[in-house]
Amino acid sequence: MRRGPSPFNVAAVGLGLAFLYAPIALLVLYSFNASRLVTVWGGFSTRWYAALFRDEQMLDAVWVTLRVGLISATLATILGLLAAVALVRGGRFRGRLPFAGMVYAPLVMPEVILGLSLLLLFVSLGLPRGFWTVTLSHATVTLCYATVVIQARLQGFDRSLEEAAQDLGCTPVEAFVKVTLPNIAPAVAAAWMLAFTLSLDDLVIASFASGPGATTLPMRLYSQVRLGVNPEINAISTLLIGVVATGVIAAWLVQRRRRV
User: Fold this and answer.
1) What does the pLDDT look like over 80-95, one tens digit per residue?
2) 180 burial type by CB count under 10 A (0-12 exposed, 13-18 middle, 19+ buried)
3) Could you give all domains of the chain from N- to C-terminal order, each with its CATH number?
């Protein structure tokens, strides 16, 4: 006869969930606070959402962040796919170990070191810091994550399917595009989403690589928090939580329908 969970386990799980989600719940709650003080409840109101959509600087930061994330995630995914193919199917080519080390280095290297290195690179090349330097920096940092995700899927892919396509007349490139790529598409999509999420979340790298007109949303939020927590921050954070939750629920529903 199976016993139910012990009171200790229930309490431990409950405290852990409360520690993780209670601050998020309070943030969402106080985004509807009528008071300017974020720690004093002044009644229910949506005034801070209206103020948020009138804040041009905040909206510009959101637009810059989205553009940087979309472009950098696409670049990182394309380069990560090529790097994964080289590591999985390239054999023991000369320079494989240094190549793999350079690809995986951002996984273990502190972001401060990466940001400083990229800053020195841009300065030495004479590139003005701005939108494109932030985009290239994010693509460089997220490339390793995309490579790891795609490489794991490629290692388990049955290459006999690709060989059968070549026997039917496809070139190696056509076989990869028509057979392999559709089969590893979920991993490629996951790599893109991971790179996009990391780009949206980054503060340290963007602080080193950004310039005038390239203020991302994390940088904007950090600069405002240093002067005091504005209720608009609660509002935009709640909107971001809602977008993420909607995406997670939608992905879960799609997976559930496929299983059925």
Assistant:
1) 999 998 888 877 778 7
2) buried
3) 55-259 (1.10.3720.10)
